[in-house]
Amino acid sequence: MAERIVIVGAGQAGLAAAVKLRQEKFQGTITLLGAEGVLPYQRPPLSKAYLLGKLEADRLSLRNSDFYQQQKIDIRPNLPALSINRAAKTVATRDECLPYNHLILATGSRPIRLPARMTERVDRIFYLRSKADADALRPFLRDGARILVVGGGYVGLEVAAASRQVGATVTVVEMAPRILNRVAAEPTAAYFRNLHRSQGVEIREGIGLVGLKTDGAAVLAALADGSSLPVDAAVVGIGVQPDTALAREAGLEIDGGIVVDGFGRTSDPFVWAAGDCATFLHDGEMTRLESVPHAIDQAEHVSRNILGAAIRYRPRPWFWSDQYATKLQIAGLNRGYDRTTVAPGAAEGSMTVSYLNGDRLLAVDCLNDARSFMQAKRQLGL
User: Fold this and answer.
1) Angle at 135 between CA 115 and CA 146, to 5 degrees
2) Is the dihedral of CA 85, 91, 94, 97 positive or negative?
3) What is the mean pLDDT of residues 301-329?
4) What is the spatial distance between Cα 160 and Cα 329, in angstroms, rounded to a whole number?
5) Burial class of 156 by CB neighbour count within 10 A (0 to 12, 13 to 18, 19+)
6) Which CATH superfamily is domain 113-236 in?
7) What is the dihedral of CA 220, 224, 226, 228, to 10 degrees?
8) What is the mean pLDDT of residues 104-112?
9) Cα gap 349→155, rounded to integer Å
10) DSSP 3-state of 87
11) Do 356 and 338 touch, CB atoms closer than 8 A?
């Protein structure tokens, strides 16, 4: 009997796993289950070009429908997995129970939502994770609109940049002492703070959101400093969490994500995980990465290992963000740094922030400095 591989999650990791299986000459059945009702697409443009209307929906798609037919990938973009029966080795959907020899979980992550008590009976609150989210938000991004961005991370700042570029009035509120507090050092945060303020964005740091309520045609945001702010829409970007519900209900090990070993196996040898949903040991710490390059790399490793390659996964972490005309490129992981250095780039307005532990380079933030980014990737072995 031919082997059957079921992949849960029709995003970047799920598609990468399916494609790599065919590239490695896997002849069995591949079933790719999705929950969004659309073919796999790029997510990074959702907060950038797509939100601005500069990228059409058909150009978001990673592959057209003919590709799946040609590669004999049974893609079902509107058929979410409901449960896993590990003993029977089946995945239940609303239509049937699909048997598998190997199961790949590429379930991604979900936005962290505001508590219901803060948003009760208020519409015009948006989260930005899916194409449907971006489609819902786009009509509100217009000249003269008042947009509140809750959370000063990269996604929030990208939305703020897109909003200003269409002429909206934008306020960013960040509960932490500064924007990018968890992910970047102060020099990088200062660069983006100055950039956004130069574009007319109001950034309010160290001020949390107390709640949102409907106020006539507006949404009234109550802030922790006692002030209130009427807006036309609120976009919440306070982080994401791995989508582990299916794995947890199946009894798989969870520790900040679906735990996988160096080969991509979960605590069940016939179930694998890759991408945003997976956590693994790296440099002595449990690690979960949220990036397209990682999702592709890890998913491809899983596919090779299912077919017997026995290759341990070594992440090559790099990330990017586009805001206005500024491109940020990040190489490495900055956790554990004890000092930073700042060096200007060759072009005006460019610079590189290096994160070090002693003399060891851990990571860099390169702002409009592609040459330093490539050099750092080589130095870090990425």
Assistant:
1) 65
2) negative
3) 95
4) 19
5) buried
6) FAD/NAD(P)-binding domain (3.50.50.60)
7) -20
8) 96
9) 22
10) coil
11) yes
**Residue the block writes with tokens 């199946």:** 250
DSSP label of 63: S
Taking domain 325-379, whether its CATH number is 3.30.390.30 is answered by yes
Considering only CA atoms, give the Rg of the chain.
22
Q: pTM, whole model, 2 decimals?
A: 0.94
Q: What local confidence, expressed as pLDDT, does residue 264 receive? A: 97
Distances (CA, A) of 180 to 161, 174, 210: 15, 9, 20
Cα–Cα distance measured from residue 338 to residue 336, given in angstroms and rounded to the nearest whole number: 7
Q: Residue 180 — left, alpha, or beta (φ > 0 → left; ψ -120 to 50 → alpha)? A: left
CA–CA gap between residue 190 and residue 66 (Å, rounded) = 47
3-state SS class at 29: strand
Is there a shared CATH topology between the 113-236 domain and the 325-379 domain?
no
pLDDT average, residue stretch 195-221: 94
Number of residues written out for the chain: 382
The class of domain 4-110+241-306 in CATH terms is: alpha beta
* Tens digits of residue pLDDT in 4-57: 999 999 999 999 999 999 999 999 999 999 999 999 999 999 998 999 889 888
Q: Enter the tokens of residue 295.
A: 């999702």
Please name the amino acid found at residue 326: T
Q: Domain-by-domain residue ranges, the chain? A: 4-110+241-306, 113-236, 325-379
Residue 375 sits at φ, ψ, to 5 deg, of -65, -40
